[in-house]
């Protein structure tokens, strides 16, 4: 049996540790492990969203009618522009990150610092935009009624074809109804706040305004929400049990409640990833400034945090598609 | 990954960049173009793309394909998968490429079934 000396050395190296079989360091491989598992987590969320959507395919809210705000443009119907802007911000911060990694390969401390800073700023802008988007979503714009079965009735002017807010038509009825505190009556039942208008006020205002009709949740073959006739609307309004303004985990003026739940959950989970990414980036940024990686002789840490950052960008590309485009 | 082993060509070698930095900007331009196309399609919603194809609007299929294209370039060029060894490439990409479509398939099919049951069943969901 002939064993060459060369082979023996290789064997020791393979089993002795310290080598990189995939030409990637331990830390980078672990980051990839994390990313693959996290990608599957996000897949689970997004597919669950898809499940609920396909289950309610004929009544799912239309994203263009939900996300219509743009900063400083009040009352202007601007669907998609804002999220498109957010997408560009995140892609751009991804680019500055990869430029920082590249500068790290060239051991250029000044450039790594500069690009890391830009990345952090981009991430912060994105998280801020996300917060603004949430604020608009929670606050709501027009308000709606909810039936016992959880269907949402929105209001439209039949002549102009525009949505009408509750405050534009709800009549003022002097009502003795106060916010129910859990200190009064049954102790474990309370409510956080009453809607600005009571059900009676909205219903009376609707009857008084001849031009108003109900926009239902159902979608017709062309993909538009079905608008009821005045007679149908008057019947439908009697089935309402609740006034809904804005969205939370229980009620949602835009349509199906699950839509709001998934919106909060998925964009929230993604926003949390961005936030932790920004925090990690800041830590690495200060390490770069202090010269930790200069002393270590390589900037691999920047590369690892970069992988995470790109992954967050990658996930947003999918969230953007499935929440706003499709 | 050592920076002397970077693969500087994208689009199957159609476009070669002189340096890594140039490639990064090139990929950014490409991603921006794709996103802009998506946004324009999303706002205009051309009538010709509203027909159904395999249970979904053609426009939605276009969005999903463009998204996967973007994901490919983010992973390949920003996350440097292009420069990794074949084994690492496979062990990252294959589980995702196998599991994600599988999960989508079973859950969406099930959801469609439930939708049909609710639509044709004798229960009113709209009360």
Protein architecture, described:
The complex is a heterodimer of chains A (326) and B (127). Chain A has 326 residues and is an alpha+beta fold. In chain A, 58% of the residues lie in helices and 8% in strands. Chain A has a 5-stranded antiparallel sheet, with helices on one face. The longest helix of chain A has 34 residues. Chain A is elongated, with a radius of gyration of 27 Å. In chain A, 40% of the residues are buried. Chain B contains 3 helices and 4 strands; from the N terminus they run ββαββαα. Chain B has a two-stranded antiparallel sheet. In chain B, strands 3-4 form a two-stranded antiparallel ribbon. In chain B, helix 1 runs antiparallel to helix 2. Chain B is flat, with a radius of gyration of 20 Å. The model of chain B has no long low-confidence stretch (mean pLDDT 85). The chains are: A alpha+beta (326), B mainly alpha (127). At the A-B interface, helix 2, helix 4 and helix 11 of A face helix 1, helix 2 and helix 3 of B.
Salient structural properties:
heterodimer; A: 326 residues; alpha+beta; Four Helix Bundle (Hemerythrin (Met), subunit A); 2 domains; 5-stranded antiparallel sheet; 11 helices; 8% strand; B: 127 residues; mainly alpha; two-stranded antiparallel ribbon; two-stranded antiparallel sheet
